[in-house]
């Protein structure tokens, strides 16, 4: 009887979980690293493909679950049924079509060349050793690198910057996706009608899953006919044609930078993230730095913890000897490659680990600055190493450590601006986002600079107050 | 009570101590003199292992002083007074004195405070208990440092040039305190340049030169009937001043 009940329970459970998996969730396999089709934004995977997949899931009454895997694994994911659908700007090729079924193309990606009016370049095929601007890592970048090796590429972080280069005559052309290109050009620029290359993107489903394939095709067709896909693409390009501001008065600039479209929200988010990362990183950094400094001090004084000592020396050497932006990218792109960990957390860890190395040196120098006689007097009285450190050396070292630590914290606040590189919306990124909407860098950058200055001024005051208090307690 | 056997100490390649032998009995007051750089302070610092000897053995009350877990316990019985006082600069006078007895659980905080105040009263510094070292004169600092050692109830106290960093008018208050402690029967080893004090105060005097003991004897032996040539020239230089 009991056994039967148990069996029943197992079957019911199987169905519940089974239903949950197969009927309520649409699992999408993608590789988030191909903006604007799929990329991380503030710790979330977003993009054109994601939006389209979400439309499909909504239509089917399912919840979309996104799996971030390596591009090479996406076909395998779909083939084995681990994921229901794959989308990652996958070009429709015959080879792939043998493994999985392709939906109808949802995107025709034309890479076009933009030049100044009156330019003597009339066809992309003319390109030889001209200077051409592209967005770093875009299709245009990789295509030109492979097919036009003699072209001198200027890789900008943003299309906007590439266009600006062209306007300033720093380059002779810009290669980019046609859809945003149409939005960005003005009277002085033209798009050459011949595309460099045209890609057709489709989504993939398991071979024989005609039900899902047909449904996906219907929805994609509808979105395409309604022109929604172009709109989605524009949204992710960070371009909204309606936002252009032509006015130059300070009041208008202020309005468009901060008020219009709720843009202050970017600044507030950026402010919160900057503070959050700086504070979190200080906690992590002080913890790591203290550990490293203590290990080194124990080793020099007692000869114990040899291995840990060398590890901590290695840590300090490596971190101080490499740029923080590189460390951030390694942590984000290498260590947390496959997992969708919160990006702010990555920032806290990366900056914390970075800061820890400097804090370790600050503490080490602080401890070394304490007169050796203090420690000897402690030893002579029969006190143990740990007691001497805790009651005498560290409290005395603190006086020397605190100002340097305050400096380190202030440096750290500014250093978090590097986080924009991996897509953390902190203050610098916020100004960047706003500038990409208003086409005006001046006002957002100055505004954000003032906010940084404000933060660091408050911190400076705070630390000098703490120093005064510490000294006051002593005399 | 204390026995040093063939103590040698090298600083990298420099031989600072070249084999020192010394026996100290309870109640003895030993003065060590010699030209600067002869190794007197290093010798003293080797006794409680603030410097690690290169070779040789040190026994205190039949127990060898080695860098092991019993070292802190032995150090409690071997007091030390430094040239630069080495008061803990982050603590008040009272906190300086009671730190070791309280943290080593020899006394409760209350007991330690009571005892510290009694000792401070004896040296007329009762009103300075909540002062920080930076607010005291050199003589006051050194007397507090001596009290800080005394509260541990040591069997022997090592004085490493206790008056060398003091202004002349403050030397008296420190030597007077040392006298008082000696009268209570404390064993002492004193490294000092204060020749008159050594001469009148010490039961035995050791003359060191070039990392070795060159002559030793009673105060009269050393100061009135010196035999070693180097000692004679050392004393003549001092008398000339």
CATH class of the largest domain in chain A: Mainly Alpha
Q: What's the main sheet of chain B like?
A: 6 strands, mixed
Helix segment count of chain A? 18
Name given to the CATH architecture of the largest domain in chain A: Orthogonal Bundle
Mean pLDDT figure of chain B = 92
Order of helices and strands of chain B: EEEHEEHEHHHEHEHEEHH
How much helix, percentage-wise, in residues of chain B?
25-40%
Task: Supply the key terms.
heterodimer, A: 475 residues, alpha/beta, D-Maltodextrin-Binding Protein, domain 2, MetI-like fold, six-stranded mixed β-sheet, five-stranded mixed β-sheet, 18 helices, 12% strand, globular, B: 241 residues, Rossmann fold, four-stranded antiparallel β-sheet, 9 helices
Short description:
The complex is a heterodimer of chains A (475) and B (241). Chain A is α/β, with parallel strands linked by helices. Chain A contains 18 helices and 13 strands.
Describe this entry's structure for a reader.
The complex is a heterodimer of chains A (475) and B (241). With 475 residues, chain A is an alpha/beta fold. Chain A has 3 domains: 2-106 and 202-236, D-Maltodextrin-Binding Protein, domain 2, CATH 3.40.190.10; 107-199, Periplasmic binding protein-like II (D-Maltodextrin-Binding Protein, domain 2, 3-Layer(aba) Sandwich); 262-472, MetI-like fold, CATH 1.10.3720. Helices cover 60% and strands 12% of the residues of chain A. Chain A contains 18 helices and 13 strands. Chain A has helices spanning 2-24, 48-60, 71-79, 94-97, 139-147, 159-167, 178-184, 210-225, 228-236, 250-259, 264-302, 306-320, 324-335, 343-368, 372-380, 385-415, 427-438, 442-472; strands at residues 25-30, 39-41, 44-46, 63-68, 85-86, 101-102, 107-116, 131-135, 152-156, 173-177, 189-191, 197-201, 204-205. In chain A, the strands form 3 sheets. In chain A, strands 7, 8, 9, 10, 11 and 12 form a 6-stranded mixed β-sheet that branches. Chain A has a 5-stranded mixed β-sheet with strand order 4-1-5-13-6, with helices on both faces. In chain A, strands 2-3 form a two-stranded antiparallel ribbon. In chain A, β2 and β3 (44-46) form a beta hairpin. In chain A, α13 crosses α14. The longest helix of chain A is centred in the middle third of the chain and has 39 residues, at 264-302. Chain A is globular, with a radius of gyration of 29 Å. Residues 14-22 and 239-246 of chain A have low confidence and may be disordered. In chain B, β9 (204-209) and β10 (212-217) form a beta hairpin. In chain B, the strands form 2 sheets. Chain B has a 6-stranded mixed β-sheet, with helices on both faces. The model of chain B has no long low-confidence stretch (mean pLDDT 92). Chain B has a single domain (2-10, 27-193), classed as P-loop containing nucleotide triphosphate hydrolases (Rossmann fold, 3-Layer(aba) Sandwich). Chain B starts with a strand and ends with a helix. The chains are: A alpha/beta (475), B alpha/beta (241). Chains A and B meet through α15 and α16 of A and α2, β6, α3 and α5 of B.
């Amino acid at each position: 009887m009991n056994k039967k009940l148990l069996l029943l329970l197992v079957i019911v459970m199987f169905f519940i979980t089974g239903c949950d998996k197969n009927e309520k969730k649409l699992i999408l396999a993608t590789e988030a690293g191909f903006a604007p089709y799929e990329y991380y934004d503030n710790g979330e995977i977003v993009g054109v493909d994601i939006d389209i997949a979400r439309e499909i899931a909504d239509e089917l009454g399912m919840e979309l679950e996104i799996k971030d895997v390596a591009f090479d694994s996406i076909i395998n994911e779909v083939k084995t049924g681990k994921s229901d659908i794959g989308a990652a700007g996958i070009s429709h090729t015959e080879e792939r079509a043998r493994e999985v079924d392709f939906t109808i193309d949802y995107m025709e990606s034309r890479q076009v060349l933009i030049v100044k009016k009156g330019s003597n370049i009339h066809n992309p095929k003319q390109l030889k050793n001209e200077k051409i601007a592209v967005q770093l890592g875009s299709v245009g970048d990789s295509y030109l690198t492979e097919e036009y090796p003699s072209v001198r590429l200027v890789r900008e972080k943003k299309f906007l910057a590439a266009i600006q280069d062209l306007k300033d005559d720093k380059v002779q052309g810009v290669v980019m996706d046609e859809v945003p290109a149409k939005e960005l050009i003005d009277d002085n620029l033209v798009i050459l009608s011949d595309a460099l290359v045209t890609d057709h993107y489709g989504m993939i489903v398991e071979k024989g899953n005609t039900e899902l394939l047909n449904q996906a095709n219907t929805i994609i067709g509808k979105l395409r006919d309604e022109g929604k896909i172009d709109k989605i693409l524009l949204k992710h390009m960070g371009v909204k044609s309606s936002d252009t501001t032509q006015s130059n008065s300070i009041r208008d600039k202020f309005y468009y930078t901060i008020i219009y479209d709720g843009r202050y929200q970017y600044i507030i988010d950026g402010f919160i993230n900057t503070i959050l990362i700086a504070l979190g990183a200080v906690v992590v950094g002080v913890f790591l730095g203290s550990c490293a400094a203590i290990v080194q001090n124990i080793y020099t004084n007692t000869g114990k913890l040899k291995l840990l000592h060398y590890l901590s020396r290695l840590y300090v050497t490596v971190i101080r000897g490499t740029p923080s932006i590189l460390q951030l990218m390694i942590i984000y792109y290498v260590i947390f490659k496959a997992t969708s960990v919160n990006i702010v957390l990555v920032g806290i860890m990366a900056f914390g680990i970075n800061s820890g190395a400097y804090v370790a040196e600050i503490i080490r120098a602080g401890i070394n600055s304490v007169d050796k006689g203090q420690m000897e007097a402690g030893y002579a009285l029969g006190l143990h190493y740990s007691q001497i450190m805790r009651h005498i050396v560290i409290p005395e070292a603190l006086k020397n450590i605190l100002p340097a630590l305050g400096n380190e914290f202030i440096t750290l606040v500014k250093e978090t601006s590097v986080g924009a590189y991996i897509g953390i919306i902190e203050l610098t990124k916020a100004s960047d986002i706003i500038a990409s909407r208003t086409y005006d860098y001046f006002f957002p950058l100055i505004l954000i600079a003032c906010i940084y200055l404000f933060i660091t001024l408050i911190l400076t005051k705070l630390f000098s107050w703490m120093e005064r208090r510490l000294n006051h307690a002593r005399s | 009570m204390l026995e040093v056997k063939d103590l040698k100490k090298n600083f990298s390649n420099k031989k600072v101590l070249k084999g020192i032998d010394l026996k100290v009995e309870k109640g003895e007051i030993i003065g060590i003199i010699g030209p600067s750089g002869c190794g007197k302070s290093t010798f003293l610092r080797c006794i409680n292992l603030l410097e690690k000897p290169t070779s040789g053995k040190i026994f205190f009350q039949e127990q060898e002083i080695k860098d092991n877990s019993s070292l802190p316990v032995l150090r409690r019985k071997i007091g030390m007074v430094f040239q630069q006082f080495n008061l803990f600069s982050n603590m008040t006078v009272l906190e300086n004195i009671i730190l070791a007895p309280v943290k080593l659980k020899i006394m409760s905080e209350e007991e330690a405070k009571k005892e510290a105040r009694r000792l401070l009263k004896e040296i007329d510094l009762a009103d300075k208990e909540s002062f920080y070292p930076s607010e005291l004169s050199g003589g006051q600092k050194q007397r507090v440092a001596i009290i800080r050692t005394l509260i541990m109830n040591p069997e022997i106290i090592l004085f490493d040039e206790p008056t060398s960093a003091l202004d002349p008018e403050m030397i008296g208050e420190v030597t007077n305190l040392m006298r008082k402690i000696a009268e209570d029967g404390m064993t002492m080893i004193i490294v000092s340049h204060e020749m008159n004090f050594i001469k009148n105060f010490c039961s035995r005097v050791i003359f060191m030169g070039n990392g070795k003991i060159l002559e030793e004897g009673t105060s009269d032996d050393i100061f009135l009937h010196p035999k070693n040539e180097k000692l004679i020239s050392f004393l003549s230089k001092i008398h000339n001043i």
